Amino acid sequence: MNIGVIGTGNMGTILIEAFLDSGAVKADQLVITNRTLAKAFAIQRAHPGIAVVADAAEVIKQSSLVFLCVKPLDIHPLLQQLAPHWTNEHYLVSITSPISVEQLEAAVPCQIVRAIPSIANRALSGSILVTFGSRCSAACRQTIDDLLRRIASPVYIDEAITRVASDISSCGPAFFSYLLQRFIDAAAAKTAITKEQATMLATDMIIGLGELLKRNLYTLPTLQEKVCVKGGITGEGIAVLEQRMNGVFEEVLAKTHEKFKEDVEKVKQQFP
């Protein structure tokens, strides 16, 4: 089965490289294109065997499973432009959250899947949020599950939690890398440690934290209990965080949901 990728920006490239690194897909099974073809050719140079084609229509002609990795407001015009080429045999996978599988099903005859990736998938880790359309056959569901499971943990979600699930799994790496960078910058600014040393220690710490959780050695609350000895140094730091962080993530979620609603409303104007 040939797999097509329309759009080789950040997430499209991450998916391509993860599929190749995991061995889930061979280079000669991939057919890709991008509005700026130079980006697609750069991927081809790194992975000889990938086919770069001139436009999205050619991707559809040569592929049975197509990943649509373009911006939300570009999807409806593209689907209309490609209308003559879609069939009910195609598996169409959209990676964007503001467009529902129901809206996509209303626009094309394909078997529709929404799969929202995370940058963690590049390391063959993290979650990928999956919602199947009503037309997906058992074969489609199995094919998609088998493919995605090679690069991530598929998590099947309802429409109602799409945004918050994406906030955690997809936006989360950016949120927490920002916090970690602020921690590093503060350490270098307030003490004699260099930024390079602080970065090394923080990187090792976050990897080790992930391993503790992955191996189910601790939960988040029990981990805090083990490190935060009553009356100790960690407890003093936690007290500052409790004071300063109160309401921060509630506000973060409020902002992401507000922006999401704006995007959903813009998309609604495009889709019947």
From TrEMBL:
Xref: Pfam families: F420_oxidored, P5CR_dimer
Keyword Cytoplasm found: yes
Pathway: Amino-acid biosynthesis; L-proline biosynthesis; L-proline from L-glutamate 5-semialdehyde: step 1/1
Subcellular localization(s) per the UniProt record: Cytoplasm
Record family assignment: Belongs to the pyrroline-5-carboxylate reductase family.
Classification via NCBIfam families: PRK07680.1
EC number, UniProt record: 1.5.1.2
GO biological process per UniProt: L-proline biosynthetic process
Chain ranges of the Pyrroline-5-carboxylate reductase catalytic N-terminal domain: 3-97
Role summary: Catalyzes the reduction of 1-pyrroline-5-carboxylate (PCA) to L-proline.
Catalyzed reactions per annotation: L-proline + NADP(+) = (S)-1-pyrroline-5-carboxylate + NADPH + 2 H(+); L-proline + NAD(+) = (S)-1-pyrroline-5-carboxylate + NADH + 2 H(+)
Name of this chain's protein: Pyrroline-5-carboxylate reductase
Superkingdom of the source species: Bacteria
Binding-site residues, NADP(+): 6-11
Alphabetized UniProt keyword annotations: Amino-acid biosynthesis, Cytoplasm, NADP, Oxidoreductase, Proline biosynthesis
Organism field: Geobacillus thermopakistaniensis (strain MAS1)
UniProt cross-references to InterPro entries, sorted A to Z: 6-PGluconate_DH-like_C_sf (IPR008927), NAD(P)-bd_dom_sf (IPR036291), P5C_Rdtase_cat_N (IPR028939), P5CR-like_CS (IPR053790), P5CR_dimer (IPR029036), Pyrroline-COOH_reductase (IPR000304)
GO cellular component annotations of the record: cytoplasm
Major location category of this protein: cytoplasm
Enzyme class: oxidoreductase
This protein's record includes keyword Cytoplasm: yes
Sequence ranges assigned to domain Pyrroline-5-carboxylate reductase dimerisation in this UniProt record: 161-262
Listed GO MF terms: pyrroline-5-carboxylate reductase activity
